[in-house]
């Protein structure tokens, strides 16, 4: 398929944009990445996603698809020649979607709150929520992976993409907040999984550098960037 038949509207710091990027890489799909300017919305974005007006948006044969996980599932269904991202078994797919919802609805808000927190007491509460979430995901990893490399088994799957897209920002939080989030003593499976995930060919080309994200965050939050 021609590259210009597949376009992805996004911005490099966004973990949610990384999700379809990884899925497209897994499927070996050529696509055109259209970088959105932070703080403004292009006319193409407003036309393609008039309801939420946000990235990512996949445009395939001039038809827009919005919401990161919906896009990933669409990619998995359309490009069937590459490795499957979602599990083939209906029950396993339901479990995948459960954990993706947990990551998006519970874990991500806690991580974002921890990143933006100012008071020590608030930070302590959020750190506890994140730690609890990681313990739950450690248990889920053991069950879903069945002793293999990824949540999806031998290959990166839906949970891997949903959780793994946040790993770069985890390092930013650790660096700026002086905390250790992925602890080998508490979640050894997740620590080793994170290393494998970041080293995967489908991921390493789209995973932002920690220092670059740190400078981006400081710029957006008004803190003076490092010289």
Describe the secondary-structure layout.
Layout: E1 6-10, H1 15-26, E2 32-35, H2 43-48, E3 57-60, E4 63-66, H3 68-78, H4 90-116, H5 120-145, H6 158-164, H7 167-177, H8 188-199, H9 210-221
Parallel strand pairs: 1-2
Antiparallel strand pairs: 1-3, 3-4
Helix pairs in contact: 1-3, 4-5, 4-6, 7-9
Account of the 3D structure:
The chain has 9 helices and 4 strands, in the order E-H-E-H-E-E-H-H-H-H-H-H-H. With 227 residues, the protein is of the alpha+beta class. The protein is globular. The N and C termini lie far apart (44 Å). The mean pLDDT is 95.
Q: What percent of residues are in strands?
A: 5-15%
Distance between the termini: 44 Å
Q: Give the number of helices.
A: 9
How many beta strands in the DSSP annotation? 4
Strand order of the largest sheet: 2-1-3-4
> Structural class given helices, strands, pairing?
alpha+beta
User: What order do the helices and strands follow?
Assistant: EHEHEEHHHHHHH
Principal-axis shape: globular
Which range best describes the helical content: under 10%, 10-25%, 25-40%, 40-55%, 55-70% or over 70%?
Answer: 40-55%
Low-confidence stretches: none
Radius of gyration: 18 Å
Question: Largest sheet, described in full?
Answer: 4 strands, mixed
């Amino acid at each position: 398929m021609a590259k210009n038949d597949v376009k992805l509207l996004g911005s490099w710091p966004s973990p949610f944009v990384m999700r379809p990027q990884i899925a497209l890489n897994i499927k070996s799909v050529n696509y055109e990445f259209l970088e959105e300017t932070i703080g403004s919305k292009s006319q193409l974005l407003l036309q393609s996603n008039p309801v939420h007006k946000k990235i990512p948006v996949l445009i395939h044969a001039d038809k827009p698809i919005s919401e990161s996980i919906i896009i990933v599932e669409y990619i998995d269904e359309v490009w069937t020649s590459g490795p499957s991202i979602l599990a083939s078994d209906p029950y396993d797919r339901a479990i995948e979607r459960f954990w993706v919802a947990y990551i998006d609805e519970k874990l991500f808000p806690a991580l974002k709150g921890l990143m933006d927190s100012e008071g020590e007491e608030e930070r302590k509460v959020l750190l506890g929520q994140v730690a609890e979430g990681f313990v739950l995901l450690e248990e889920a990893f053991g069950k879903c992976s069945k002793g293999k490399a990824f949540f999806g088994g031998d290959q990166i799957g839906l949970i891997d993409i949903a959780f793994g897209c946040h790993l770069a920002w985890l390092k930013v939080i650790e660096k700026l907040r002086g905390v250790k989030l992925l602890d080998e003593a508490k979640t050894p499976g997740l620590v080793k999984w994170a290393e494998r995930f970041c080293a995967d060919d489908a991921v390493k080309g789209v995973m932002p550098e920690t220092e670059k994200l740190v400078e981006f965050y400081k710029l957006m939050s008004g803190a003076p960037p490092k010289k």
